[in-house]
Design a protein that fits this description.
By secondary structure, the protein is α+β, with helices and mostly antiparallel strands. It contains seven helices and six strands. It has a six-stranded antiparallel beta sheet.
Length: about 200
């Protein structure tokens, strides 16, 4: 996985934005019953037009996800992912996977106060945030973000999470929301990677 794969996904998505309005139905996010206007993650649904109409496709790496998403089923659910709001990791998305894994191993007893605060947020089952910065000690020069996303099963090629690396849509200047790029915009190479067990 690398620059050519994400570039192809980006190009397919860009081409779709220039075509008919009917394409919007492919990306439409419908809120599950538990997600309503009072929920802190409601902007994922409410700001999807801002996200899709002006957003950019970048690599994302799943950090955590509801266990239901790893098996076939009818329910959409939440996942958390790590991404950079730009193209800095087009050629090295594996680094995002390393950071995503590192977020699962953080301790509230770390000597780094920024890491302690971040770990405490992750440890709290009631914590919900669209996007928060990854502590500087875990990253290189480019800022990375930890974001909650809704995972619509119909946006995945096989309806389940089979890999941890995938294309996401972000519009960092206009919304904190992020979304998995629907698989109808994935390149053949991305589809092969995702469905190769």
């Amino acid at each position: 996985m690398g620059r050519l794969v994400i570039k192809d996904c980006r190009d397919i998505f860009e081409a779709s934005r220039r075509s008919s309005l009917a394409d919007k139905s492919n990306r439409k996010l419908s809120p599950p019953p538990w997600l309503d206007e009072r929920h802190p993650l409601w902007p994922i649904v409410a700001e999807q037009d801002i996200l899709y109409d002006g957003g950019q496709v970048v690599w994302g790496a799943i950090a955590t996800a509801n266990d239901l998403l790893y098996d076939p089923g009818p329910q959409d659910s939440l996942a958390a992912l790590v991404y950079a709001a730009g193209t800095a990791y087009d050629e090295s998305p594996a680094f995002l996977q390393d950071v995503a894994k590192a977020t699962r191993e953080l301790s509230v007893e770390s000597g780094d106060s920024e890491v302690r605060k971040f770990a405490a947020f992750l440890d709290d089952p009631k914590s919900r945030a669209l996007r928060i910065p990854i502590p500087a000690s875990l990253i290189e020069d480019t800022p990375l973000f930890y974001a909650m996303v809704l995972v619509p099963r119909r946006h995945l090629p096989n309806g389940v999470l089979t890999k941890h690396l995938l294309p996401v849509v972000v519009n960092a200047y206009k919304t904190a929301a992020a979304a998995i790029l629907p698989s109808c915009y994935w390149s053949p190479e991305m589809l092969d990677y995702w469905t190769d067990f």
